[in-house]
Structure formats: structure tokens, C-alpha cells
Amino acid sequence: QVQLVESGGGLVQAGGSLRLSCAASGRTFSSYTMGWFRQAPGKEREFVSAIVWSGGRTYYADSVKGRFTMSRDNALNTVYLQMNSLKPEDTAVYYCAAYSGVYNYAVSANYDYWGQGTQVTVSS
Predict the structure, then answer these.
(1) How far is it between the farthest Cα atoms of the chain?
(2) Tens digits of per-residue pLDDT, 49-70?
(3) What pLDDT shows up at residue 78?
(4) pLDDT score for 27
(5) Separation of alpha carbons 77 and 38, rounded Å
(6) What are the residues whose beta carbons fall under 8 Å from the beta carbon of 66, sequence distance 6 or more?
(7) Residue 65: which residues within 8 A CB-CB, separation 6 or more?
(8) What are the b/e assignments for 77-86, b being 16+ CB within 10 Å?
(9) Mean per-residue pLDDT over the chain, rounded
(10) Residue among 111, 122, 109, 107 nearest 47 (CA)
């Protein structure tokens, strides 16, 4: 079992930055691929970023590439999402998730565990 708790969301002006954190419990955290997804009102949940268990490879949606950076600290059982140059269209609830596989990391149905989400609101 892995339990995930997100934090760091909030209200920010366009062009600003936020850093999301996801704290995980569970002894096997380091073996999971971790992902960030987001869901805006009236829209489907979409992939944002993923990082494999070793932290050596990260993946990003085209919409956030160059602006967001995902990292993990296996010693602290925590993953981070540094979000820079935020845009109003980044407004959504952001979810952290854990996946026991490596491939198809952008597919939300593959993820085994989810956090409760944290709201990010970007004002124009």
C-alpha cells in the first residue's frame, strides 16, 4: 500500500511559480513510477508529468514542457513538481499518483494509488 498526500497548491498570478509536493508512505515507494495529473472543471483528467523509480528519466506533457520540472527524493519518499511561468490554463486540481509499471505512464488508468489532489489557480 502507498498513501499519497499532495501539498503546495494555491493562488498565483500568471507568470508566477508554485512548487507542489507529494509525500508518500509505504516501504516500496522507490520502486514506483510517480506521476502528476491534473483536472480542470468540466475536463477530463490529463497527464502532466512522470518520473521513473530511479529518478533518472522524466516525461512531460507538451503543454508544460520547458515550464514544469518533476523530481523525486526517494530518501524522503517525496516527489515534487516545480511549476514556472504559470498560465491561467494551468488552473486545475493536481493529483499525485503511483504506478508499479514503467511504460504507458501517461495513462491514468494504469496508476495504482492516488492522492486527494491540491488546487492550483492561476489568475490572469
Answers:
(1) 42
(2) 999 877 679 999 999 999 999 9
(3) 93
(4) 67
(5) 21
(6) none
(7) none
(8) bbbbbebeeb
(9) 94
(10) 107
